[in-house]
Amino acid sequence: MKIWYGKDFKLGILGAGQLGRMIIQEAINWNVHIYTLDSDPEAPCSKISHEFVCGSITDYETVLKFGKDKDLISVEIENVNIEALEELERAGVAVFPQPRVLRIIRDKGIQKQFYADNQIPTADFRLIEACEINNQLDFLPFAQKLRTGGYDGKGVQIMQSSSDIEKAFDAPTVLEKFVDFEKELAVIVARNKNGQVISYPTVECEFNPQANLVEFLFSPAEISNKVEIEAQRMAVDIIQKLDMVGILAIEFFLTKEGKLLVNEIAPRPHNSGHHTIECNVTSQFEQHLRSILNLPLGATDLIQPGAMINILGEPNSQGTAFYQGMEDLLTEPGIYVHIYGKEKVQEFRKMGHFTITAPTISEVKEKAVRLKNTIKALGK
Prior knowledge:
CATH architecture of the largest domain: 2-Layer Sandwich
Number of strands: 21
């Protein structure tokens, strides 16, 4: 591979949303030139990429054409054309995470089977076709998840009773037995081509039930040392069993009996790692670059406790985005605001996030509850 910095090295990213934007913000520090591909001409990366191409990341010919002159290809979303990435890999283009890993993770059914085949604890599940949903009443209550295409809370619904079956997805799905959990946790782990692996301290997530998106993320998680050790062990085990190069987010359920179950994994920077920009020695976005460029991985130690709060489009909001309450929020110490550069606001669309820091996690949580609604993403 060429020297990774400077104009002669081309790093392409499929997808040009907020994750790509934050990767570019880190890449600028190292003079790494990022090229992005996305079907949205106003995508967050469109104006800050070294070069932006408007086109479909799921179209074979578009991805192949985009990638053929790149030294390295990565992704910021799993729903990409894997066949084109496999062809690029055969042609000598480095692709991280590897296409075979994306193939496992993109399809939630294959992902679940990977857990079962590798003795990785997860909730009981069934893989069904759309026509089979009426034969699953004995499995209630369960979460129904589209096998492909779901993201940011979309493509997931809870089935509590037989009356919910009529709203079932008309597509192949995973049925996941409902877990009566104590907490939802997450660990970010990275691995480079040399096999070096490092993980971040476990975080705790609280979800907005209406939007089915993370409302609060707290770091560090308030869990026992035993659970922390097990979460770290499982994270390292998963990325090694995948033999993956890149950064991987693992979402866990912590049951009321103290057992960890893997919910889902994502082979890219993740919402559960945004706090690392301010709270850890190395941000997840720098770590992603380190891992795919096969550089030594950075320290993940916690510098200070923190919370991450998503800035979502307000209910019924649409039009040109503006942000109400920014001035009030910034009067508080230890606040860091990240706006993603999306021109148009939509209901529950991720428009940005802000991180809260304080000397203790109890102070962080107090500030998070008090400030969570201070800033609003509205349309005009």
